[in-house]
Amino acid sequence: MGIKPLPEALTFARELDLDLVEVADKANPPVCRVMDYGKYKYETAQKAKESRRKSTNVVIKEMKYRPKIGGGDFETKTKKVDKFLSEGHKVKVTIMFRGREVAHPELGKKILDRVAEEVAHTGRVEVYPKLDGPRNMIMVLAPDKKAQAEARKKAEAEHEGADPVAETADMADTAEAPTEAAPAPDAEPAPTETEVAPEPASEPATES
């Protein structure tokens, strides 16, 4: 349209049943656009909503350990760390020292290295172990999508490889077992022939 006086620009917009919207107020002269402002606001809101939906809301979780943690507690806490990472959250792992434990930071680092090793299939170390104040040591883990995909692929491959074996075992279990031949009924003894010696002929009696 070029440069137009404001009344003429407004008249032009009204004739088209549209709005005259100022888009660059600091320009000289100001820049305006003829548009459907209601439709523009709606489309802008939809784009913002879609952008928020696609954006990942990363939350930093925290899990605390002790240098002398027991095996059961270590396993329980580490499983939670693994779960947080698989859900897409970062995890701050904190070692809390107490008393004379402060003099042995290597104990805390040993625990952190062990945690990182246990969850290597779901996360990676983003911030390596370091002291955080006089009584804490921290490490930050971040989700590792590549490692998670490889772990899923490996699990699926193992599952598929195990199926034929299981199927074969099932077939072997359900196969009809060979039946034992029923014992034959007791056979009657075959008749045997016996020779009977002929009795000697009796001699006729003689009179003396």
Walk me through the structure.
- This protein has 208 residues and is an alpha+beta fold.
- Among the domains are: 49 residues, Ubiquitin-like (UB roll) (Roll), CATH 3.10.20; 89 residues, 2-Layer Sandwich (Translation Initiation Factor IF3), CATH 3.30.110.
- The chain contains five helices and six strands.
- The chain has a four-stranded mixed sheet.
- It starts with 5 loop residues before the first helix and ends in a 34-residue tail after the last helix.
- The relative contact order is 0.08.
- The C terminus is likely disordered.
SSE topology sketch:
Elements lengths: L5 H10 L3 E6 L6 E5 L1 H18 L5 E6 L5 H16 L3 E7 L8 H14 L4 E9 L4 E8 L1 H30 L34
Parallel strand pairs: 3-4
Antiparallel strand pairs: 1-2, 4-6, 5-6
- Name the assembly state: single chain
CATH fold category name of the domain at 60-148 = Translation Initiation Factor IF3
Strand order of the largest sheet: 3-4-6-5
Average pLDDT over all residues: 80
How many β-strand runs?
Answer: 6
Calculate Rg over CA atoms: 47 Å
Overall 3D shape: elongated
Going by CATH, what is the homologous superfamily of the domain at 60-148? Translation initiation factor 3 (IF-3), C-terminal domain
Instruction: Report helical residue fraction.
Output: 40-55%
Instruction: Determine the number of helices (DSSP H or I, runs of at least 4 residues).
Output: 5
Named CATH architecture of the domain at 60-148: 2-Layer Sandwich
- CATH classification class of the domain at 60-148: Alpha Beta
Structural category: alpha+beta
Q: How many angstroms separate the termini?
A: 181 Å
Outline the low-pLDDT stretches.
187-208
SSE topology string: HEEHEHEHEEH
| % residues in beta strands | 15-25%
Largest sheet: 4 strands, mixed
